């Protein structure tokens, strides 16, 4: 508008632009951090550390969903107060609407992340719940016969392997390859 000074398109309120950038940038960094935590979650051996990670994810995701709600309300309010004279040729109008839409959909996204973190917390942080050994849907099988009194007599005389250190007098079956 004839000057080198930049103005925020949200009613020339610099706080609206700065708040939106802050929430978006910190949310991106935190989302990257929690992605790495989820990737390494199965290698965290301490149940207490797992619980702390899940609680941190619940807390941060809930707070960030609220901050995006505030961002949506603040940006929509400032955009509604922006007059057409302040934006000749509708400069930045599409970007402003996109920022408002992004804030709205981010509320849903962060609320969904909060719900998923609460579900993970309700599952518990027991080590056996987060292993991938029994994820095929079938019940875990027991590799050895049961020794319980009610388990029945399923003893067998078959052995799994020959006893160690026994000499076998049979001729070796290995044949030397001919080249």
List the helices and strands and how they pair.
Layout: H1 14-39, H2 47-80, H3 93-123
Helix pairs in contact: 1-2, 2-3
Biased composition (Polar residues): 144-169
Keywords: Membrane, Transmembrane, Transmembrane helix
Domain MARVEL: 1-122
Q: How would you briefly describe this protein structure?
A:
The protein is mostly helical and 179 residues long. 51% of the residues lie in helices and 0% in strands.
Structural overview:
This protein has 179 residues and is mostly helical. It has helices spanning 14-39, 47-80, 93-123. The chain has 3 helices and no strands. It is found in: Membrane.
Cα distance, first to last residue? Answer: 88 Å
Q: Structural class from helices and strands?
A: mainly alpha
Unreliable runs: none
Rg from Cα: 31 Å
Helical stretch tally: 3
- Please state roughly what percent of the residues sit in beta strands, choosing from under 5%, 5-15%, 15-25%, 25-35%, 35-45% or over 45%: under 5%
Outline type: elongated
Give, in order, the helices and strands. HHH
Biggest sheet details: none
The helix fraction, in percent, is 40-55%
Domain MARVEL: 1-122
Pfam families: MARVEL
Family: Belongs to the synaptogyrin family.
InterPro entries: Marvel, Synaptogyrin
Throw out a few tags for this protein.
mainly alpha
């Amino acid at each position: 508008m004839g000057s080198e000074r930049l103005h925020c398109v949200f009613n020339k309120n610099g706080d609206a632009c700065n708040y939106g950038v802050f929430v978006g940038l910190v949310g991106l960094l935190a989302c990257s951090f929690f992605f790495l935590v989820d990737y390494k979650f199965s290698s965290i051996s301490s149940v207490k550390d797992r619980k702390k990670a899940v609680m941190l994810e619940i807390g941060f995701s809930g707070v960030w969903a609220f901050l995006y709600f505030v961002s949506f309300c603040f940006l929509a309010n400032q955009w509604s107060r922006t007059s057409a004279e302040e934006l000749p040729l509708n400069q930045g109008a599409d970007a402003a609407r996109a920022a408002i839409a992004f804030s709205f959909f981010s509320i849903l996204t962060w609320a969904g992340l909060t719900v998923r973190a609460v579900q993970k917390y309700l599952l518990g942080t027991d080590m056996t719940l987060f292993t991938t050994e029994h994820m095929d849907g079938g019940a875990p099988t027991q590799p050895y016969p049961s020794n319980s009194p009610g388990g029945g007599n399923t003893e067998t005389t078959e052995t799994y392997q020959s006893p160690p250190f026994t000499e076998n007098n049979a001729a070796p079956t290995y044949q030397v390859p001919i080249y």
